[in-house]
Amino acid sequence: MRQAQGQTILERILLVTFDPPENIGGIEGRSKNYARELRRRGYFVDVMSLSPSYPPTRALTEPGVTTRLNSSTLQAPSSLATTIRIVTRDALTTVLLVSGSLTVFGLTLMAFCRMSGRHTVAFLYGRDILVARNSVIGRVLLLFALRLADNVATNSRFTSGLLPKGGKYLLVFPAVDPRILDMTTATRLNDDSVRILFVGRLVERKGADLLLKVFGDLVTQIPRAKLDIVGDGPESGSLRDLARKLDVQDKVSFHGALVGTPLYDLFVLSDVLVMPSRTTKVDVEGFGTVFLEAGLFGKPSVATRTGGIPEAILDEETGLLVPEDDPRALAGALRRILTDQELRQRLGARARDRAATQFSLDRAIDALEKAIRE
Fold first, then answer.
1. 44-51 vs 12-17, strand pairing mode
2. How many CB atoms lie within 10 A of CB 82?
3. Domains of the chain
4. In the prediction, which pLDDT does 60 show?
């Protein structure tokens, strides 16, 4: 136990992330929420945020420090040396690798912690593991990470199942912060439209192309349907072209990447969240935090039965699940949910209750504290 500015410090923690908290995404949100909530519970937390575009900076926070370091190939050795100096100087006792566990940076930091008697928790995600399993070097990095980390944390049972059997893996589900409900300004109008919302990176794996094709047929049967697409990525241009080709550009709104109130307003205005994800050789939806966010706003979800999505969405309870790359099944699920208001309300209410109780931020921090104290 330590004292800092009148506050009891339970532990001195370094939270490392290669997904900067100011960006958009599930891991980015984790880093931000974990740092804030651990500090609120009395921990001293240094956040080490790495990105190829960062100039080195350091800013005081209460209680702790946020450091930005450059992770480019040329700067990574210097950034690693700086990190080790900070760990030693600030007497940090636990390192949480929220991302970057399978990098040379992450493994070297874990090795240093092992030799210096510090505790490490390494988070692994579906994409990390699939990419690692595709090469000899990747498999070696994964083996070393599993040996060096004191605790290995995953975001779903599915992700744990991708790791070697017999290991003891800590399950830390994604969580949602109920305070996002207070960040909205939108009010749903009493019109007869039904609005579909897609939120995610515009990459092939997320399935926005399939959703657009299905929507092109669906809108002829349900003319009042509208589609909001939130996100950015390499498929952005081709998706806009597809909307024009399908002649639904007046029914589809591309919002780009959104965060905070503009994003949460769209949850308020929507009727259903849809994300027909695909599994590839090197990537998979390990869970899907966005489904919890939709649930918190009382919205059901329609998604594919792949990866860890069935843990985020309970079929026929909080949403509807369909097979991967099955346009007929996806269209059927959308028709069903868009034309049945009672079904939408029932699934949405159950989704809200489940998100608020089973995936609260407090429960996630409880699991994290268990890993820190073991």
1. parallel
2. 17
3. 2-175+360-373 (3.40.50.2000), 179-358 (3.40.50.2000)
4. 58
